[in-house]
Description:
Chain A is mainly β. Chain A has strands at residues 4-7, 10-13, 19-25, 31-38, 42-49, 56-57, 64-68, 74-78, 87-94, 99-101, 105-109.
Amino acid sequence: NAGVTQTPKFQVLKTGQSMTLQCAQDMNHNSMYWYRQDPGMGLRLIYYSASEGTTDKGEVPNGYNVSRLNKREFSLRLESAAPSQTSVYFCASSEIYGYTFGSGTRLTVV
Amino acid sequence: SQELEQSPQSLIVQEGKNLTINCTSSKTLYGLYWYKQKYGEGLIFLMMLQKGGEEKSHEKITAKLDEKKQQSSLHITASQPSHAGIYLCGADMGTSYDKVIFGPGTSLSVIP
């Protein structure tokens, strides 16, 4: 089915390790986003990309980097994971109205 | 502080009962979205409201945006266990870049 695909679904990291969360959409959307979801905090925007080749910081960018590899793919990298980055991460894409979300990546940093 | 607030934070209702979830902003909303999230899954788009006074329905779920475009309500009629999940409102606050801000969510449990 068309939509947003995130990998992996689950990951456990040790403090200081690095990893990349992958996201791909097949709806030809221009805009893509990375959010994190924490209890009582709702969804907070980490980074977004309004179009291929552009990225901008959102509300909570510290500790993360992103790459908009092409129109389909938008990856999120944690260079040195910290326990504070334990969260559920969602990728989303949009064209004009409404977002389509991936199923999320549950990340635990120990 | 949250730019979007939702109330209540959580709700437990008996199957068949009606319920309302509210989403409030201190600023004018240029677009208001409602999403549902099943526990451990991604968000599913329910509906979008743009005009003051607008009301939309989908099956047993009705959402309204007030005339001043600063508050939206989501009403579920005759709730069912399938309605259980987290309901999030998202809003276009009219900023210069294309992004939606989300409320903290309302957790709904429906007891059979």
